[in-house]
Amino acid sequence: MSDLRQPVIILVRPQMGENIGAAARAMLNFGLTRLRLVAPRDGWPNPRAVAMASGAAGRVLDQARVYPTLAEAMEGIDYAFATTARGRELTKPVFTPASAMEKARAHDGNCAIIFGPERAGLENEDVARANAIVTVPVNPEFASLNLAQAVLLMGYEWGRDHLPPEPAPHARRSDSDAPADRIEIERLGDRYEEGLEAAGFFFPETKAASMRLNLRNMWSRLSLTRGDVRILHGILRQLTRR
Length: 242
Hints:
By secondary structure, the protein is of the alpha/beta class.
């Protein structure tokens, strides 16, 4: 994702370092790295934010810019969304996260998403500096989201057209997780057939051939890993131990 196109995340008067760090993690989950802080209550830099941010510390927190006021933090921003769950007397367009980020992706300039402090959210003076409001359609009886949740939700809507449509495969797969090949499954089927033969399972004789065929067909339908095959061999070994 281009740094020139991604929105700036502005946290206004955030109260706890841990919440700033959690918000940074949520940002980087969806490729967002441009963070601005307005008058963080506990000062900056904040070691608790770094600890909570984990791998996002270097890529987000270390690059964060700090401002004394929201007006100054709007430097270079030409369109801003204010996130709030409360009704406002201010007349502004109101978007859902999805429609807001669709507009942000189509915007040629610098967009910002403004988030308020944890306890009470943005004040009217903050919202007045935004072009539009973003409100999440949630349970009206409990509309509150914590700071990191709100950032995560907006980040997801921003990234949904840029990120892979399916979860990325793990870079490494252990031998146990690898699919069993046909020879391994054939050997497993042979061992079970031998064990069941010794136990008198294939009875009566007139049905033995079809029972063996159905059993072999069952093995071929199962999506077994190599670990699964080893477990099934172990089960049979214990059951047939004398």
